[in-house]
Amino acid sequence: MDLHKLRVFRAAALAEGFTKASEELHISQSTVSLHIKELEDELNCQLFLRVGRKVLLNEAGRVLLECSEKVFRELKNTEMTVRELNSMHRGTIRLGTGATTLMYRLRPAIAAFRKRFPQLELIIESGTTELLIQQTVAQRLDLAVLMCPISHPSLRVTELGREELVVAVPPDYPVGRNRQIPARDLAAMNFILYRPNTSMQRVISRWFDEMGIEPKVSVEMENIEAIKSLVSAGLACSILPACALAEARKNAEIRVVRVKDKPLFRTLGLACLNAEILPTSMLELSRLIQKEIQAQLQRECAQA
């Protein structure tokens, strides 16, 4: 089976269309269609169902996509491993993470990695857990620090530990005078929360549901630094990772409160493709990230 045709098939399957695949691969749509037809002729079966402008995989196509993911994953990792065995130590690693984790968790690990592999390019991309999963499965990212639980057959996920989320309130907010508040006080507060159907918002929604509270939401956004700015300006309260609030608390820009007998945590995990062979540089970056984040979380737990 021709690898180029398999690569075209994979792009069309992930994009659910020949036009998007042609744009991604920088070839014409007619060439994409031709390669798909030749592949279907070679396998003597159809791989796609045409639904309007979309092309969706049928059962045979889903099986081929799963197999092709394994093929390209192993090819990529084998190439990187061979390069390292030849002492070249060149190439690129793409790390995906949320902006808050990057700013407050990963700097020591990244610095240590750059010191050991100065010739290896490290590209960092930020995004939601949902986007990071998609990018890792599509092999556009090599590693991703994201929120658990994650269940995907193409991914290997290592849990790093639990990170506390707290209620962030403006400095002049009445409840901000207390370190702990009863759950019922949340019902009267306005919140800046996260967009629906994101991992962060699901964790928070589940927490409110367990307390029988429907939060009043003034704004929905994903940028935690922007949320902090709006909280400090007095617009509303929010639910934020405790690690992101140390400086704001020190400068009295934001106050932090916890709900009595109802702590809130999210679990961080490190994901990569579930491959048998992983390059030494990727394993070292994984080790450094695990060591750093687990140490931070253990310190924070001891100080709580």
What can you see in these coordinates?
It contains 11 helices and 12 strands. The chain is α/β, with parallel strands linked by helices and 304 residues long. The chain folds into 2 domains: 3-70, Arc Repressor Mutant, subunit A; 92-304, D-Maltodextrin-Binding Protein, domain 2 (3-Layer(aba) Sandwich), CATH 3.40.190.290. The longest helix is centred in the first third of the chain and has 27 residues, at 59-85.
Task: Kindly summarize this structure in a few lines.
This protein is of the alpha/beta class. It contains 11 helices and 12 strands.
Strand content: 15-25%
Question: What does the overall shape look like?
Answer: globular
Helix percentage range: 40-55%
Would you report the number of β strands? 12
Can you give keywords for this protein?
ten-stranded mixed β-sheet; 2 domains; D-Maltodextrin-Binding Protein, domain 2; 304 residues; Arc Repressor Mutant, subunit A; 11 helices; single chain; alpha/beta
